[in-house]
Design goal:
Length: 278
């Protein structure tokens, strides 16, 4: 494997270099966000455009307050953009919907439901028959390595186990795209590393499109097909870095020279932007 070729792109518009003969899974067109406050207006996100292809794993990386989570919340339909459009499979997003699965940093499981009931909650609301729900639960319990815990309640689980269930619940609903807002940010380093491997295993099996927000440079490299680096606020896309490390990836790749080259490049980019924050 040779030295990584890091892609330089125009700030604010970082279009995927994957084939563009088909409609992208996700398209963000000139999306901006201005928050109104008592003291005036704050531009959180300048007009930004990029695309994500079907089955692609994209991470967004940047300094605190750069608008990473704002982008994700706009895609999720939880926040309205001030300008621009977001399209999923060519159709404009105008609010929340079951076509987008969401995993937050905080644990969002229903405490009164068991692990199995949490995983199949959305399916039950859709009227999916019990046997089919049981089959889906069995599949994802195996996928996230939680077999034997199906009758446990969230209070009986560790933080990492709770996030495994949250990932399984999102995937069980078969969304078109999975949105993840720093889902491992509250975990200790060892658990975080394990969860990254669990997520990659689930992604490789499901081939879902994933948009993942993180502060962690190593995490962004290990998971992604492409890393989008954002500028300091007002946020815009500074650079796209395609990650060409072989898949499937194992933890040992973090010790390679190729991984180190990506890490050095991304740390430099983040430092440049962090120094601009006043």
């Amino acid at each position: 494997m040779g030295t990584p070729q890091l892609e330089h792109s125009e700030e604010g518009r970082l279009d995927s270099k994957l084939p563009t003969t088909k409609t992208p899974k996700l398209e963000i067109r000139d999306v901006g966000k201005i928050f109104k406050t008592k003291s005036g207006e704050t531009t959180a996100l300048e007009k930004t455009s990029f695309t994500i292809e079907d089955g692609e794993f994209v991470t967004i990386l940047g300094p605190s307050g750069c608008g990473k989570s704002t982008v994700l919340r706009i895609v999720a339909g939880l926040e309205e953009s001030t300008s621009g459009q977001v399209l999923l499979d060519g159709k404009e997003i105008n609010g929340p919907g079951p076509d987008r699965g969401m995993v937050f940093q905080s644990y969002t499981l229903y405490p009164w439901l068991t692990v199995k009931e949490n995983i199949t909650f959305g399916l039950k609301l859709k009227g999916v028959p019990q046997k089919e729900r049981d089959d889906v639960a069995r599949h994802y319990l195996q996928l996230i390595d939680l077999e034997g815990f199906e009758m446990h309640y969230p209070i009986q689980l560790s933080g990492g186990m709770k996030q495994r269930v949250a990932i399984a619940r999102a995937l069980a609903n078969d969304p078109k795209i999975l949105l993840m807002d720093e889902p491992f940010g509250a975990l200790d380093a060892q658990t975080r590393n394990i969860m990254q491997e669990v997520l990659l295993k689930a992604w490789e099996e499901s081939k879902k499109t994933i948009l993942f927000i993180t502060h962690d440079v190593e995490e962004s490299i290990f998971l992604a097909d492409s890393v989008y680096v954002m500028t300091a606020r007002p946020g815009r896309l500074k650079k796209k870095v395609p990650i060409t490390l072989d898949r499937p990836r194992e933890f040992s790749v973090k010790g390679t020279a190729e991984f180190g080259a990506y890490k050095e490049e991304l740390l430099t980019l983040i430092r440049e932007e962090s120094l601009k924050i006043k």
